[in-house]
Please model this.
Amino acid sequence: MNRVISILLFVPIIFVSFLYLYYATVIDSSLNRINDYHLKTVSNYASDSAIEEMLDVADLGTDYVEWGKFNTDPEIALRDYIDTFLMSFDLPLTEENREMVKVNYLKVFTVAGYDGYYVYDHRAIDEGSQLAFVCSPKIPYLYKDMSKNDREVTYALSMGDRCFKITNATLSLVKSPLSKNKVLEIINDRISDDLINRIDQQYPNGWNRQIYLPNALTSISKTNPIAGPTVLALVDDVDLLRGKKVAAFGIGGAMATVARPVSAYQRRGADGQWVKYYCYSDLLPEDVSGDRSVIEEVFMKIEDAAKAGYHYDIMYMNR
Model:
């Protein structure tokens, strides 16, 4: 009888043991997913922060002749990405920690600009030297037009409406021969092919995982996420959470915009009284008649002009 009772008591012990193992596995799997989600979120926010910092700090060189043209500084983007990454894990912003991220976690870091892109990856600077995380020279978005029967024409594309035509070692600025969507498709294919090739070279057996965009869950080679200045970063073997190594691919982008100046002045109203008005500077006629004062102030936003007491000038704004 005692033997039967002992056997019956052993059954719930086995059941509780299996239940404990099941919940331990579920909890461990859930924590791994949380860590994976956390790292992807960190990488995405760090990429966004890097591109915003680059556009805010760098001398963009933007002008009205070629709308949207800008200069990019990859060093600013890389430093801000790493600093945001470190702060997300509550790590101090020291040179040692920055170097740790470069050496151990960052595999590839790409900054796509208006007319070319930069890539940081691990490679030997000199023959036989250790690998270093270095930046490539600016790589243009080259496109070879094979439609000409007699000769091949090469273009250095940009994200704008114009590009450089390369003929006989000479450059000439011309209108882009392709549509905007086709240009972006070529730029995305150019960067994604280069990116995947560089990643593949950093693993002894090659990269056996497919890169997915976290915001669209589509392969980078089958979409056009790069439509403006963009930062792409791959971090792998990150063990800052629970010692579990996880990987993440982050993408961040922002459009560079050119401010449209607003001129503020006074103009006589219908009753002959002087009234404070504002208008976009490019819409104002060059000549100044006796019915309008010289420009008193220049604002970057119409909201700022309105706050200063100026009114919408229907005479010039609706031209």
Q: What stands out?
A: Helices lie at 2-57, 74-88, 95-105, 180-201, 302-307, 314-317. The longest strand covers residues 116-124. The two ends are 103 Å apart (CA to CA).
